[in-house]
Amino acid sequence: MTALTILLVLVLLLVVFGLLFRLQILTSIFSGTYVREIGMSNRINAVLMLVFMVVGGAAFFWSFSENFNKMNPPIASIHGHAMERMFWTTMTVIGIAFVLTQVILFVYSYKYQHKEGRRAYFFAHNNTIEVVWTIIPAIVMASLIFAGWKAWTRITGPAPKDAVVVEVMGKQFNWLVRYPGRDMKLGVVNYRLIDASNDFGFDLSDKAALDDFTTNGEIHVPKGHPVLIKIRSRDVLHAVYMPHFRVQMYAVPGMPTRFWFTPTMTTDEMRAHLGNPKFDYELACNQICGASHFAMKAKVIVDEPDDYQAWYAKQKPNSANTDMMASYKETSKSAGLGKGGSLGAKAAAIEETGETPATPLSAQTAM
Ligand SMILES: [Cu+2]
Predict the structure, then answer these.
(1) Which residue ranges make up each domain of the chain?
(2) pLDDT band for position 98 (cuts 50, 70, 90)
(3) What is the pTM of this model?
(4) Is residue 139 a contact partner of residue 162, using CB atoms and an 8 Å limit?
(5) Residue 168 CA, ligand 1 centroid: distance in Å
(6) How far is ligand 1, taken at its centre, from the CA of residue 174, in Å?
(7) How far is the CA of 287 from the centre of ligand 1 (A)?
(8) How far is the CA of 219 from the centre of ligand 1 (A)?
(9) Backbone angles phi, psi at 160, to 5 degrees
(10) Domain 164-361: which CATH class?
């Protein structure tokens, strides 16, 4: 109890001293004898603000223009141009607002640095200003978002019925590519069937899977024809990124996604356009997915429609691979899938995400 009393006395004493000190400062302020040492620090800060604006601003514009071509490769798809317009409209509007506000911020910090005898103007409230700076940004932002939403729904809407279908499955660390084969229908796949000879997990009890074929990480698509990319992931999050086609979409384990686009320039045309005979379109993984993420890419080849048909006709279905057949029989038994077709309509319904199967390209040679 004594200790508590002593502690309480000490605390109260501290409070009294604090109040006395504060009182002393207030008296000296009102009697006009109070002097506060500002020194040079305020002036140095004000100048550094200007230096930061000029040097930082110059460095920003330099790095932007220096890397612009890397970020902005030539467009090789139809919707890419709509995206580009959207991007530059947004960039212009927010760019103007950004530059204006930043210049004002730094210039005013310099202009209104501490000066002896200068008092700040006390400005309480102004309804007109509040209304103006709320309504104008609200209208501008809402129009940008509305235009962006319209463009995005158009771009990500259902693919045309005659789209060529390619399925890509991301896995650590490469892309598996599957085509629907002659029947233009992707067969059922099942993760429980994945093994060394069946890395896509083809379920060969589904007839549609029998003519499906995979390629060696190469994606062929025809020029001037809609292409629907169906996207899966086998392990972690990946992202399908094809910068020239302005395509990007996540590959999510357990949740198929998709993106459709129409390529407008063949690989050869792009090589000529860039003056680079070694150029190839690429599909890169754009989601950090592990140690070898940097190397996770596939080659995309845009062919003339005739070349594409010729290439397609040459591909052999994976079911022709006897290893795969033998291992399928074994795995499907041990995975408890029973005899053929046990996955049934339910699994097939899950597989088909409402996309209409593609029709053979030859049906549209008018393209
Ligand atoms: Cu990845």
Answers:
(1) 41-115+127-155, 164-361
(2) very high
(3) 0.72
(4) no
(5) 12
(6) 7
(7) 6
(8) 17
(9) -55, 150
(10) mainly beta
* 215-270 confidence digits (pLDDT tens): 887 899 999 999 999 999 988 999 999 999 999 999 999 898 999 999 999 999 99
In one-letter notation, the amino acid at residue 182 is R
- Tokens in use for 321? 């691979």
Give the residue with greater pLDDT, 25 vs 324: 25
pLDDT at residue 318 greater than cutoff 90: no
CA of 110 to the centre of ligand 1 (A): 47
Query: What's the 39 CA to ligand 1 centre distance in angstroms?
Result: 55
